[in-house]
Write a structure and sequence with these properties.
Helix content: 25-40%
Number of domains: 3
Number of helices: 10
CATH topology of the largest domain: Oxidized Rhodanese, domain 1
Bound molecules: zinc ion
Structural class: alpha/beta
Radius of gyration: 22 Å
Number of strands: 15
Length: 318
């Protein structure tokens, strides 16, 4: 058995004095010795925690025993090592940034569907699936026949979904996102904006839980995740690849950041083109004087090395 755990969790709730709550929680987590990132807002909690089995058990018990977060659900992954080396516990105005005031899914949200219910319902003629994720996410994977929106960020969702109201008015709508948190707010917004609450559903636990419980049937491509893996396979039943290398158009799932830091475009790039383009999205970026050194990963740290190292550029500027 592996010795470490990663916990993923969120819960919409009413948190009085969320700022003070975050401070107390930081002391608790520091004392316990866990690592990770936890956000508190008046609307709830959203976090990832990494620690030993015993630490994680104690952490889950602590949150579950607080009446504010009673019933909180944890997604638990077994790990060979700690997956985070820092601890951040912070207060934020929102646990997931949406920018629409007066929406708290613990008061109002779309109906939840369990993964097997999704499987039974999704192909019926009056049902549509609606992706609530951003462009770079649905570029590499989405449900077969799903409606996707042109979203740079989740904050664009209200404006884009408003345009679909006529088209979808007789449909039953199943929304989905990676782990479920965005759909809680997206469906809450849609109900307030006049979509029929009786016809509005969301996948409980998102794509990740759906994949665990159904084998990921009819999810085309890969699932974008916000960690070092970048994308992860989801579908064991009828998998496909839907994305293509930005340069040569061969089917590919690998995502990189452009090696020109001023561009930093997140895009799909095959290994062969990666070396040929030195990690750049276009010729102009390839020739950019500040281009970073491409090491084959297309992943750069904030203080990542540049092609021309900082000593040289300092020397030039002095
Ligand atoms: Zn290529
Ligand atoms: Zn570029």
């Amino acid at each position: 058995m592996k010795q470490y755990r990663t916990l993923l969790f969120y819960k919409f709730a009413h948190v009085p004095n969320a700022e003070e709550y975050a401070h107390q929680h930081l002391l608790f987590a520091r004392n316990l010795g866990v690592m990770g990132r936890v956000l508190f807002a008046e609307e709830g909690i959203n976090g990832t925690i990494s620690g030993t089995i015993a630490q994680c058990d104690r952490y889950m018990e602590h949150l579950s025993n607080d009446p504010i977060f009673a019933g909180i659900e944890f997604k638990i992954d077994e790990e060979d090592e700690i997956t985070s080396h820092k601890l951040h516990v912070r207060y934020r105005p929102e646990i997931i940034h949406f920018g629409v005031p007066d929406i708290n899914p613990c008061d109002l949200t779309g109906n939840y569907l369990e993964p097997d219910e999704v499987l039974a319902m999704k192909d019926q003629p009056d049902v549509v699936m609606l992706d609530t994720r951003n462009n770079m996410e649905h570029l590499v994977g989405k449900f077969k026949n799903a409606i996707t929106l042109d979203l740079q960020t989740f904050r664009d969702f209200p404006e884009k979904v408003d345009q679909l109201r006529e088209e979808l008015k007789d449909k039953r709508i199943i929304t989905y996102c990676t782990g479920g948190i965005r759909c809680e707010k997206a469906t809450a917004y849609m109900i307030k904006a006049g979509f029929d609450a009786n016809k509005l559903f969301q996948i409980h636990g998102g794509i990740i839980k759906y994949a665990k419980e159904t084998g990921g049937t009819d999810f085309d491509g890969y699932c974008y995740v916000f960690d070092k893996r970048v994308v992860t396979p989801i579908n064991e039943v009828n998998p496909t690849i839907i994305s293509k290398c930005h340069i040569c158009d061969t089917p590919e799932i690998r995502m990189v950041n452009c090696s020109n830091p001023e561009c930093n475009e997140h895009f799909v790039l095959c290994e062969k083109c990666g070396w040929e383009m030195e990690g750049a999205c276009c010729t102009a970026c390839k020739e950019h004087p500040r281009r970073r050194i491409y090491d084959g990963t297309g992943y750069y740290t904030r203080n990542g090395k540049q092609l021309f190292n900082s000593k040289q550029s300092n020397a030039q500027s002095v």
